[in-house]
Structures are given as structure tokens and as C-alpha cells.
Sequence to fold (107 residues):
Amino acid sequence: MTHIIVAGLALAGFALLLLAMPRHQQDWLRRKLPARTSGRLQLAGFALLAGAFLAAGTGLGWAYGTVAWFGWLSFGAAVTLAAQTNREAILARLRPTKPTANPDNRA
Fold:
């Protein structure tokens, strides 16, 4: 159970850090967020990564938990990077498509 919590926190933390960057806000949200909101996202992302460290340390012991935390950090970063790389395919599935005009109704 601890591993699932740590993995979820690490993934969410990296996702928030990604969305805190104005360049990626334009890609994912189609707009840039105010600087204050970006700062809050960045702070929340780092807080989630720190929370993952605490969860790993208390749940698995500080020696093994630290190693597991680094492993789950790598997992979270890799999944976030893969999502960023495949952004267009993901957004195409999430966003509704506009109905296309019927080619038979040409005037």
C-alpha cells in the first residue's frame, strides 16, 4: 500500500511541476496561467514530492524508503515525460471532436 501512495504522490507532484511551467501550460491548457497560480502549482508539486518522501520513510523505513522514493520519483518523471511527448494523442482522446460537415450536402 505504501508503494501505491508514494507512486501516486510522485506522479501527481511531477504533473503539477509540469503544469507550473508556462510553456507546458499553453500545450495542455491552451492558455497561460497567472504567475501566482504557477507559483502555487510549483509549490504544491514540491510539497507532493516531499510528502512522498515522508510516506516512503515512515512506511518502509528510512533506509529502504529513501531508495524506494528515488525509484518512484524516476517512475513519476518517466510517466510525466511520456505524457508530454505523446501530448497530442492524449488530448485528441480527451477533447471532444467537432462534427464534420456532411460531404453529401454540398450546394
Remarks:
- The helical segments are 2-19, 22-29, 35-60, 62-85, 87-94.
- The first helix runs from residue 2 to 19.
- Residues 4 and 72 are 9 Å apart (CA to CA).
- The chain has a mean pLDDT of 89.
